[in-house]
Design a protein that fits this description.
Layout (H helix, E strand, L loop, with lengths): L2 H24 L46 H13 L3 H12 L3 H7 L9 H19 L10 H16 L5 H14 L7 E3 L4 H4 L37 E4 L3 E2 L1 H11 L15 H16 L2 H29 L8 H29 L1 H23 L4 H33 L1
Antiparallel strand pairs: 1-2, 2-3
Helix pairs in contact: 5-11, 5-12, 6-7, 9-10, 11-12, 11-14, 12-13, 13-14
Length: 420
């Protein structure tokens, strides 16, 4: 080795020693492990895990720390709490770079700059856990579909006015009224309806003949001879519907009678369809009717699991839109998908907070614009895609992934119903 090389090596060693000394001076002192009856089988200075000679506090062969961590319990609890809640520079750096500069964290990670960032899978878990936890806290309790009686009354009055003015036919008026009455099943107030639905209990609101429209006959007030035959009309039970308490036993019986009439004496050869399938559906609907408040909770519990499946599927979509690009493996697409979903979860948290200030409409619009702009920039930075090609790929991913998300949401609702 030449003299300049020796001087450079000596200078580097001196700088390293100075840096270590400075670090030791500022590093908090850690009390060594206490003596224990169970000692490593290897001698001191040898890794207890793989048997390699230690060259420092961490084994260079297997990565295990040489410390035995045998300290007082209070110190163990304190260290665990510190490790759990402390925010080091990597957290701040990763979140800032991830949200403000789309694609930078992904590109750096794939190019080998990994020590400065949180691992992608851990980042996704933290982001998704934070989102669904806060979502469960701020989600309003109650039925999944709301019903406004005052708004329903206003809608009926406007329909009556439209019918009187000749802007709609009597049949359209009746269909619209029945649709409004059908939504009344989601009224949280306790009330009674017939098994035929709220529309059967609602009296027709069609104007009289003097208003210019033909009056609709009322079957309840028609003479007995003119009334259509309905042998079960007098036997219909009154159903109490309460979205907090559920459907009354009479309503549940009417529900089972509609799906499995064989249980109520109807001959099996007169009913079409598999009885096993109809019984399963009736049992599921009965449980939903008995516990309507649990449907939303169970669906929300399934949402993180379905989204966990969506991440590798999004990686597959990235592989399809870049199938002819050499050098990009599924590993690269999966890392990109993890970072993208982590950013989307964090953006939804910001939009959720923004909705309390600007209202949900502006918050949803801002999130929609940010998500698409983020995906566009992500493709530009990670895959070095041109502007026009990036726009085309964003559109393709939007359509394909939107379809998968729709299937995922459907699965969430169905799995929530099955889990009740």
């Amino acid at each position: 080795m030449s003299e300049p090389d020796l001087e450079a090596a000596a200078r580097t060693a001196a700088e390293h020693v100075a840096a270590v000394a400075a670090a030791e001076g500022t590093r908090p002192k850690v009390r060594p492990s206490r003596a224990s009856a169970l000692r490593p089988d290897t001698p001191e200075g040898v890794c207890a895990n793989c048997g390699a000679t230690l060259m420092g506090p961490v084994c260079h062969a297997c990565g295990q720390h040489a410390d035995l961590y045998k300290r007082p319990v209070w110190r163990l609890i304190g260290d665990s709490i510190t490790d759990m809640f402390v925010l080091d520079g990597r957290v701040v750096r990763t979140l800032y770079q991830l949200m403000v500069f789309p694609g930078r964290v992904t590109r750096d990670y794939l190019k080998g700059k990994r020590g400065r960032y949180i691992p992608p899978f851990r980042l996704y878990l933290v982001a998704s856990l934070a989102f669904f936890l806060i979502l469960s806290l701020v989600s309003p309790a109650g039925p999944m579909i709301g019903y406004d009686p005052e708004g329903s009354q206003i809608a009926r009055e406007r329909l009556d006015e439209a019918l009187a003015a000749g802007e709609m036919t009597a049949n359209d008026h009746r269909a619209a009224i029945q649709a409004i009455d059908a939504l009344a099943v989601f009224d949280t107030r306790s009330r009674t309806v017939t098994p035929a639905g709220p529309a059967a209990a609602h009296e027709s609101r069609a104007p009289d003949a003097q208003d210019g429209a033909p009056a609709q006959p009322d079957l309840d007030e028609a003479p007995a001879g003119d009334r259509p035959p309905d042998p079960d009309r007098e036997d219909r039970a009154v159903i109490t519907v309460d979205m907090d308490e559920g459907v009354s036993p009479a309503g549940i019986e009417a529900l089972r009678r509609a799906f499995v009439p064989e249980e109520f004496g109807l001959p099996a050869d007169t009913v079409t369809g598999s009885r096993t399938a109809r019984t399963f559906i009736a049992n599921r609907l009965e449980r939903l009717a008995s516990r309507p408040d649990r449907w939303a909770a169970e669906s929300l519990a399934w949402a993180p699991r379905i989204m966990f499946v969506m991440v590798p599927l999004f990686g597959v979509l990235l592989g399809l839109v870049y199938v002819w690009r050499r050098g990009f493996l599924y590993f690269d697409h999966l890392i990109t998908a993890l970072h993208f979903h982590a950013a989307i979860f964090m953006a939804m948290l910001v939009a959720m907070a923004l909705s309390f200030v600007t209202g949900p409409g502006w918050a949803v619009l801002a999130f929609f614009v940010y998500a698409h702009a983020y995906l566009y920039r992500l493709l530009r930075v990670v895959y070095s895609t041109g502007r026009v090609q990036a726009v085309m790929r964003v559109a393709a991913l939007d359509l394909a992934y939107g379809f998968l998300i729709t299937l995922g949401l459907t699965a969430v609702v169905l799995l929530g119903a099955v889990s009740v």
